[in-house]
């Protein structure tokens, strides 16, 4: 399968950004981890990061018919973007929502996710391992569906 790992705003700063919350792992390390873990699962992983809501929406539209699944960390857009939610609803590509931090253990405004209702499921709180768990979940989901 083809799986897109899509990262949203400020995640390009990982490694230097609030390391007490997000850890010391850089985005490049996470991307490399996803690529190599994808190989062990026989999945072809590609990557995109953008700080722009419209670019993320375009990437979700472009995934239609091209990607079998998306691992999405929408960053703060998770909590604000009805537009991203609508894009996922329209794309017909299964999405697993991921977060490095446990958004439910943080500020109230992070508890609400616009992605969760249109995702297969949500994985949060495991740092870079959240992405590994998401790839496992997506690969199992796709295998089960015979997709
Ligand atoms: C995040 C959690 C969001 O609340 C925050 O805005 C981020 C990162 C996470 O991976 O823990 O940018 O998505």
Automatic annotation (TrEMBL):
Catalytic activity, reaction form: 3-dehydroquinate = 3-dehydroshikimate + H2O
GO biological process, any: quinate catabolic process
Gene3D superfamilies in the record: Dehydroquinase, class II (3.40.50.9100)
Enzyme class: lyase
Catalytic residue positions: 22, 99
InterPro entries documented for this protein: DHquinase_II, DHquinase_II_CS, DHquinase_II_sf
Pathway info: Metabolic intermediate biosynthesis; chorismate biosynthesis; chorismate from D-erythrose 4-phosphate and phosphoenolpyruvate: step 3/7
Residues annotated for substrate binding in this entry: 73, 79, 86, 100-101, 110
Entry annotated with the keyword Hydrolase: no
UniProt entry keywords in alphabetical sequence: Amino-acid biosynthesis, Aromatic amino acid biosynthesis, Lyase
Top-level taxon of origin: Bacteria
EC identifiers of the protein: 4.2.1.10
Site (Transition state stabilizer): 17
SUPFAM superfamilies associated with the record: Type II 3-dehydroquinate dehydratase
A GO MF label: 3-dehydroquinate dehydratase activity
Transmembrane feature ranges: none
Function: Catalyzes a trans-dehydration via an enolate intermediate.
Family label: Belongs to the type-II 3-dehydroquinase family.
Classification via NCBIfam families: aroQ (TIGR01088), PRK05395.1-2 (NF003805), PRK05395.1-3 (NF003806), PRK05395.1-4 (NF003807)
Subunit structure: Homododecamer.
Protein name as catalogued: 3-dehydroquinate dehydratase
Organism listed in the record: Ruegeria halocynthiae
């Amino acid at each position: 399968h083809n799986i897109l790992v899509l990262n949203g705003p400020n995640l390009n700063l990982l490694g230097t950004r609030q390391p007490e919350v997000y850890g010391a792992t850089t985005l490049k390390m996470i991307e490399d981890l996803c690529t190599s873990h994808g190989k062990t699962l026989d999945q072809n992983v590609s990557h995109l990061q953008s700080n722009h809501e419209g670019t993320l929406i375009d990437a979700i539209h472009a995934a239609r018919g091209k990607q079998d699944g998306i691992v999405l960390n929408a960053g703060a857009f998770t909590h604000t973007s009805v537009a991203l939610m609508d894009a996922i609803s329209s794309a017909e590509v299964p999405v697993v929502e991921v977060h490095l931090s446990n958004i439910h253990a943080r500020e109230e405004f992070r508890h609400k996710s616009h992605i969760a209702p249109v995702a297969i499921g949500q994985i949060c709180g495991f740092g870079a391992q959240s992405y590994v768990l998401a790839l496992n979940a997506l690969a199992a989901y796709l295998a089960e569906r015979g997709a």
